[in-house]
Write a structure and sequence with these properties.
GO terms for molecular function: hydrolase activity. This is Glyoxylase-like metal-dependent hydrolase (Beta-lactamase superfamily II). It holds the Pfam family Lactamase_B. This protein is α/β, with parallel strands linked by helices. Helix content is 36%, strand content 18%. Helix 10 packs across helix 11. It is globular and about 65 Å long.
């Protein structure tokens, strides 16, 4: 667990409030409070936990405000370490919650499943990936239920200005990590709130869910391709300062986006090199790739995420004409060199 840094005045009416994520190696989410005449506008809200709520409240009081005075919460994406406390802030203040419409659609689907992140079709997906039956059974025993974050009342689109009186805060759609991930350009301060899209040291999880996703928009068909495309556009925004949701702020947006793109291009080349004339399953290809913790050291949940990342890379290779998909016995997913 990382030590939680202090609340920090970043100047120009911007404050950084670290909100802990209990039990998570990321340590904390950097929630940003933007001063406006009608109260602070928060960029993200943090994890739904009493310790997190206490930290957010203490942070707001440290800057001379309180949860009851928040004017609005704009959420960069639906993941619970960003959206979890938004509903509680709205209960305390009556504020609005804004999110890109594509992620609002995801939350509605989760809500319709009764809070399930996965349903029974996930075990079928693992079988299609070629996972051994004992791993499918282990995954089926996992508790994948969550309390869905509060549904936002404001749906955002690319280029839309946020309701931040006296400021000029614009939504920039950057899909990949989630279908509706947004960055936020503070045009009156030359800052870009990057959420999880651009982080200074690590790269966000980019996965294809489900592995057999046939459509549903360009991001659903090719999340990695969408991520790379939106990364390439970030330097054109011209913001001098990056304010990410994790780790630390940094200034070289162009350099960092180039590093992340290069990392994924290297990964794509490595995966393409594993393809030969004989078809291989998604599970076989995932196990053959290098992973920071090592495939053998991964629990089944981590292997599921690794397989989804590999599926996303394979989808990009397919669209570039570098991988040929097919089906084996029982509909098992296969790829080979074209």
């Amino acid at each position: 667990m990382r030590d939680t840094p202090p609340v920090e005045d970043l100047g120009n009416g911007i404050w950084s409030i670290p909100v802990p994520i209990p039990g998570n190696p990321l340590g904390y989410t950097l929630v940003y409070a933007l001063e406006t005449p009608r109260g602070p506008v928060l960029v993200d809200a943090g994890w739904q936990h009493e310790d997190s709520w206490r930290a957010l409240g203490d942070g707001l009081r440290a800057i001379g405000s309180a949860p009851s005075e928040v004017h609005g919460v704009v959420v960069t994406h639906f993941h619970p370490d960003h959206s979890g406390l938004a509903g509680r802030v709205r209960e305390a203040s009556g504020c609005w919650i804004a999110m890109h419409h594509a992620d609002i659609d995801v939350l509605r689907r989760i809500e319709a499943l009764g809070g399930l992140l996965q349903d029974e079709t996930e075990t079928a997906q693992l079988r299609l990936a070629g996972a051994p039956e004992e791993e499918v059974a282990a995954y089926a025993r996992l508790d994948t239920r969550m309390d869905p974050p509060a549904l936002p009342d404001t749906a955002l689109a690319h280029g839309e200005l946020i309701d931040a009186p006296g400021r000029k805060l614009r939504a920039v759609w950057t899909p990949g990590h989630s279908p509706g991930h947004i960055c936020l350009h503070l045009e009156d301060g030359d800052h870009l709130f990057t959420g999880d899209h651009v982080l200074p040291r690590i790269t966000p999880h980019i996965g294809l869910y489900p592995f057999t996703e046939p459509g549903g928009g360009p991001d659903a068909r090719d999340p990695l391709g969408s991520f790379l495309d939106s990364l390439a556009l970030v330097p054109d925004i011209g913001a001098a300062h990056a304010l990410p949701a994790h780790e630390r702020r940094f200034d070289d947006l162009a350099g960092r986006t180039a590093e992340i793109i290069a990392h994924h291009e290297e990964r794509l080349d490595l995966l393409a090199g594993l393809l030969g004339p004989a078809p291989r399953t998604l599970w076989e290809l995932t196990a053959a790739l290098p992973w920071s913790r090592g495939w053998d050291g991964m629990a089944v949940r981590a292997r599921r995420m690794a397989a989804s990342e590999t599926a996303a890379h394979l989808r990009t290779l397919e669209r570039r004409g570098r991988a040929a998909p097919s089906r084996g016995a029982g509909g098992v997913l296969l790829w080979q060199r074209p």
